[in-house]
Amino acid sequence: MTIQFHGVRAARDYLLEGFPLTRVEALLLFGVPDLTKIISDLRAERYIVVRTSITFAAALVRLRQHINVGTPAELPIRDIKLTEYRVSV
Fold first, then answer.
1. Distances in whole angstroms, Cα of residue 33 to Cα of each of 8, 25, 61, 75
2. What DSSP element (H or E) covers 55?
3. DSSP letter for each residue of 15-49
4. Residue 1 lies in a domain
5. Which of 19, 37, 11, 38 is nearest to 88 (CA)?
6. Of residues 88 and 5, which shows the higher confidence score?
7. Which pLDDT tens digit goes with each residue over 7-33?
8. What domain range includes position 49?
């Protein structure tokens, strides 16, 4: 039996389960380079997608629960803002 991984489907399911997702997380966790397409499709299907701003440091905390990721020491991770998407239930 062959198990196939579909990053777009996995990222979509992740959002539909109520978890927040940034572009960086979509790329690193699911291999999805274009989160915009997934968000647009969800909105076209009448899902309410909420957008908020978080720091890169907050996204790193979530990422480090799943993968080993580091940043350069000089990178101002508390000053960099990312957009986080979440499907409202």
1. 9, 10, 21, 22
2. strand 49-55
3. HHTT--EEHHHHHHHH--S-HHHHHHHHHHTT--E
4. no
5. 19
6. 88
7. 999 999 999 999 999 999 999 999 999
8. 7-87
First to last CA, the chain: 35
Give the total number of structural domains in the chain. Answer: 1
Pairing state between β 49-55 and 81-87: antiparallel
CA 83 centroid distance within chain:
9
Write out the H or E segment, with its range, that includes residue 63. helix 56-63
> What distance in Å separates the CA atoms of residue 11 and residue 9, rounded to the nearest whole number?
6
User: Does residue 53 form part of some domain?
Assistant: yes
Closest CA to 7 of 43, 22, 67, 28: 28
Task: Look at the chain and count its residues.
Answer: 89
Q: Give residues with Cβ within 8 angstroms of 28, minimum separation 6.
A: 63, 67, 69
Task: Classify the C-alpha dihedral 89-47-56-14 as positive or negative.
Answer: positive
